[in-house]
Specification:
alpha/beta
């Protein structure tokens, strides 16, 4: 039980880091050096009675730059490779009762690009229509990918490109024994 809690904590940590990495901070403001104009000193330094001013684009003036405004930046959080791999395997094995295994030849002999064929596969496992399904292939098959493209609840990936978010968001995972071996080889065996 303690081991399972640790794994769920690790999965949570890696998932948050992945979400954080995907977020883009694009807000941008110009500083006084980036705002156009303001090259000439507005008035002489002394004798006018006004406060000294060096530029019309000072942040204190209307039309001036912004002090400490937002700039595009990234907020990546470093995750160790071993932690990331363990999180992927842990998430995969936590969903092992939702895994369905098929014959490897099914994807290799996939010749026609038909969504109907993928739907027939889903019907053989009696999966609900609105449930999210992840198909894990050993190597990328363009015909399978094109067949699933207009099925909004079906996603295709390969065993060496597994993504934590894909695993967590899927209700069912369909894969072959060969793909499972490839996952164990790429990500290390889980201690189940």
């Amino acid at each position: 039980m303690q081991e399972k809690k640790k794994r769920i904590g690790l999965i949570h940590k890696v998932y948050l880091a992945q979400l954080r990495k995907a977020y883009k901070h694009t807000a941008f403001t110009k500083t006084k050096s980036e705002v156009r104009g303001g090259g000439k000193k507005p008035w002489r330094q002394k004798g006018t009675g006004n406060a000294r001013a060096g530029s019309r684009r000072s942040p204190l003036w209307v039309g001036g730059g912004v002090i400490f405004g937002p700039k595009p930046h990234s907020v990546k959080k470093k995750i160790n490779k071993k932690e990331r791999r363990l999180a992927i395997v842990s998430a995969f094995y936590l969903k092992k009762e939702k895994c369905h295994f098929i014959n490897e030849n099914f994807f290799e002999t996939f010749e026609i690009i038909k969504s109907k064929k993928i739907l027939e596969l889903l019907n053989t496992f009696k999966l609900q229509e609105n449930s999210k399904v992840l198909l894990v292939l050993t190597k990328m098959n363009k015909k399978v990918w094109l067949s699933t493209r207009n099925l909004k609840n079906v996603e295709v990936t390969t065993a060496n490109c597994l993504n934590l978010e894909q695993i967590l968001k899927s209700n069912y995972i369909i894969l072959s024994n060969k793909a499972l071996e490839s996952i164990n080889l790429n990500y290390g065996k889980s201690y189940t």
